[in-house]
Amino acid sequence: MEVPPSIRSESATLALFSKNSTPPANRQAERRAAQEQVFLREVDDALREDSTLALFKRYGGPAGMAIVLVLAGVGGWLAWTNHVATLTGQRGEQMAIALDQVEAGRYDAARTSLAQIAATGGAGFRAASQLVTGGIALDQHKSADAAKAFGAVAADGSAPQVYRDLATVREVAAQFDTMQPQQVVDRLKPLAVPGNPWFGSAGEMLGVAYMKMGKNDQAASLFAAIAKDKSVPDSLRGRIRQLAVHLGVDMGEDPAAQAAGQ
């Protein structure tokens, strides 16, 4: 799901909410955007720190469910079927049934249930069901099927943008080894910029694509920017830092080594 970002701190988010000079409609839009940014940062942190359980306890609803389950794979479904069952409405019940089927290893039945949700639900549930379908395919090592499911969400203009961007990152990741480097650049360059929730995740793949194209200077510059971005999770920053150093970037002393020496 990341998957990442140069994002406002929660204190900055609170400051944003307090701007009384901003029209109410704009404040509401800014609030949603800021909360979405914080959420995506925590999704990526949780994924990389293997703490998706804590994230689920904080966020409910199909958005949190679909994004984190897809990012984390299809493990751990059982812990959340009861939570999903509390979602309001028939679609929530259908999603809970689909997740029960996945947990039981009944993937064919789950795909049928998810397809029904996608066909009859609103844009959010449709995108969520397709993301989960893609996650199932990845778990079964069916990269082409996963890419197709993620691609459908990425191309759905009615789906929430957060779902579409996540789907783009996941689609590229699912078929990265078979894509031409320029294709990776075309898909991920718009997301691999400071301030975007997927800066780190998209930037890592974009940088590798640059390296495949012989554009090591561009890769090095991008890796250095990600490694220095303190809003990117430490585990990803550490990996990117090594790539930057490999390309000749002087990153100074490793912060992790400094901390270990204290």
Gist of the model:
With 262 residues, the chain is mainly alpha-helical. It has helices spanning 10-17, 24-49, 52-58, 61-72, 78-85, 89-103, 107-120, 123-139, 143-154, 161-174, 181-188, 199-212, 216-228, 234-246, 255-261. Mean pLDDT is 72; it is low at 1-22, 46-88 and 257-262.
What does this structure look like?
- This protein has 262 residues and is mostly helical.
- The chain folds into 2 domains: 121 residues, no CATH class; 124 residues, no CATH class.
- It is built from 15 helices and no strands.
- It is elongated.
- The N terminus and C terminus are likely disordered.
Taking pLDDT < 50 over at least 5 consecutive residues as the criterion, the unreliable ranges are 1-22, 46-88, 257-262
Range of strand content: under 5%
The percent range for helix content is over 70%
Q: Compute the number of helices.
A: 15
Q: Report the mean per-residue pLDDT as an integer.
A: 72
Largest sheet: none
Number of strands: 0
State the separation between the terminal residues, measured CA to CA.
Answer: 35 Å
- Class from secondary-structure proportions: mainly alpha
The number of domains is 2
Work out the radius of gyration. 19 Å
- H/E element string? HHHHHHHHHHHHHHH
- From the spread of the alpha carbons, the general shape counts as elongated
